UniProtKB/TrEMBL annotation:
Keyword Cytoplasm: no
Gene3D superfamilies, per the entry: NAD(P)-binding Rossmann-like Domain (3.40.50.720)
Family affiliation: Belongs to the short-chain dehydrogenases/reductases (SDR) family.
Top-rank taxon, per record: Bacteria
Domain Ketoreductase residue range list: 6-190
InterPro entries referenced in this protein's UniProt entry, alphabetically: KR_dom, NAD(P)-bd_dom_sf, SDR, SDR_fam
GO molecular function, one term: 3-oxoacyl-[acyl-carrier-protein] reductase (NADPH) activity
UniProt name for this protein: 3-oxoacyl-ACP reductase FabG
Pfam families noted in UniProt: adh_short_C2
Matches recorded under NCBIfam families: PRK07231.1, PRK12826.1-2
EC number: 1.1.1.100
Alphabetical keyword list: Oxidoreductase
Length: 245
C-alpha cells in the first residue's frame, strides 16, 4: 500500500475527480478526511468504510477560515498528524470577459484560489511539526493555455500552479513538497452535460482521441502524494492526453 497509515485530507472529495481520489487513497491505506459542502461526502465515506477502508466526512466550506482551522486542529488531535492535503475543491462561473460580473469573478476566486490558500495555511503547522507533508492542488490545463469564457477559472488555476512553486521554496526545508495537477477534459458530471456534437469535437481535438476518466487523474494525485515522489516538488503534472503538448 503506497499510503499506508497516512492521514489525507481531500477537499471536494465527494464526486468526480475528488471522489476517485478519496476512494483510491483509501484503497492505498490512507485514512481519508473528506471535506465538501455536498452531503454526498458522507455517502462516499460510508462506502469506503464498508469496503474495509478508513474515511470520515465533514460538511464545510474551504472559504471558512475559522471552520477550516478548527477542523484541521481536530484531525491532528485525533490522529496525531496530517500527512497529505489534496486541494481539489473548485467551481466554475463561465462567462466571456465583457459579460462576466464581479460576483462571478469573486465566487471563483474565493473557492479556487482563496480556499487553496486557507486550507494549506491551516495544514502547514502540523506538517512542519512532523517534518513531513504532501500538498497537491488542483490546477487545470486551462491555467496553462487559457480557455474561452473562463477568465476567472483560468486565473485561479494559473495561480494554484504559482502557489505550488512558491510553497516549494518556503516549505522544502521542513520535508514538505508542493505540487499541482492539471487535468484536461475529464468525464465528470459537468462534462457529461456537453451536447454530443460538441463532445465529439472535444475528443477529436485531444491527441489520444478520448477523454480522461476521474481515476486517470486520481493516479496522478496518488503519485505526488506518495513517498515515490519524495524528490518531486514545484511541478505541475499535466494529465490531458497530450492537449497541452
Amino acid at each position: 500500500m503506497r499510503l499506508k497509515d497516512k492521514i489525507a485530507i481531500v477537499t471536494g472529495g465527494s464526486r468526480g475527480i475528488g471522489q476517485s481520489v478519496s476512494e483510491l487513497f483509501a484503497r492505498e491505506g490512507a485514512t481519508v478526511i473528506i471535506l465538501d459542502l455536498l452531503p454526498q461526502g458522507q455517502v462516499v465515506s460510508d462506502e469506503i468504510n464498508a469496503k474495509g477502508g478508513k474515511a470520515e466526512s465533514h460538511t464545510i466550506s474551504v472559504t471558512d477560515k475559522l471552520a477550516i482551522e478548527n477542523l484541521f486542529a481536530q484531525v491532528n488531535k485525533k490522529y496525531g498528524k496530517i500527512d497529505i492535503l489534496i486541494n481539489n475543491a473548485g467551481i466554475t462561473r463561465d462567462r466571456t470577459l465583457e459579460k462576466m460580473s464581479v460576483e462571478e469573478w469573486d465566487a471563483v476566486i474565493e473557492v479556487n484560489l482563496k480556499g487553496v490558500f486557507l486550507c494549506t495555511q491551516a495544514a502547514i503547522p502540523y506538517m512542519k511539526a512532523n517534518k513531513y507533508g504532501r500538498i497537491v492542488s488542483a490546477a487545470s490545463n486551462v491555467g496553462l493555455r487559457g480557455n474561452f469564457g473562463q477568465t476567472n477559472y483560468a486565473a485561479t488555476k494559473a495561480g494554484v500552479i504559482a502557489m505550488a512553486k512558491t510553497w516549494t521554496l518556503e516549505l522544502g526545508k521542513y520535508g514538505i513538497t508542493a505540487n499541482a495537477v492539471a487535468p484536461g477534459f475529464t468525464m465528470t458530471d459537468m462534462v457529461k452535460q456537453i451536447p454530443e456534437e460538441h463532445f465529439a469535437a472535444i475528443k477529436e481535438s485531444i491527441p489520444l482521441k478520448t477523454v480522461a476518466e476521474p481515476i486517470d487523474i486520481a493516479f496522478g494525485y496518488l503519485y505526488l502524494a506518495s513517498d515515490e515522489a519524495r524528490f518531486v516538488s514545484g511541478i505541475c503534472l499535466t494529465i490531458d492526453g497530450g492537449t497541452s503538448r
